Amino acid sequence: MIFVGALGLTGCSQKVQWPDLPVTEATPYFTNAAKTQTIDTAFYEIQNAKGEKLGTILFSSPYSDGIKGFNGPTPLLIALDAEGRIKDVVLLENQETPWYAQHVKEGGLYKEWYGLTPAEAMNKEVDAISGATFTSNGVKKSLVARLKAYERQLKKK
Prior knowledge:
30% of the residues lie in helices and 19% in strands. It is an alpha+beta fold.
């Protein structure tokens, strides 16, 4: 799932018309996804065939583009369930050393936020994965930056 990078939108600093998210990009996180709706920049509502909300997908880019891991930005996909709790966090295409990125995943960093609301996740103290501190810190800061932007987006929705 490298939707944002594939569209060349990582690192953008200008306001752009955010593209629609193909349903195929949502189905790994929401198996019954039938429709995606662009709500705001990097913010998508996922619906089933009946139009019922299944959840939300957020991309950290462009909100976290200035946050660096070891070798550069650590762009994330954050999936929230229908109740607004984090169900998945995925590191997207990046320049991190693959071993470090894998070590962060296997070390359970992403799972630290599963089941939390965005507010709970932003306030949770999460330790970096030993041996991949820079990558871990980049991921943590990217997640918080995106969730702060999400809160602002919800207020204007």
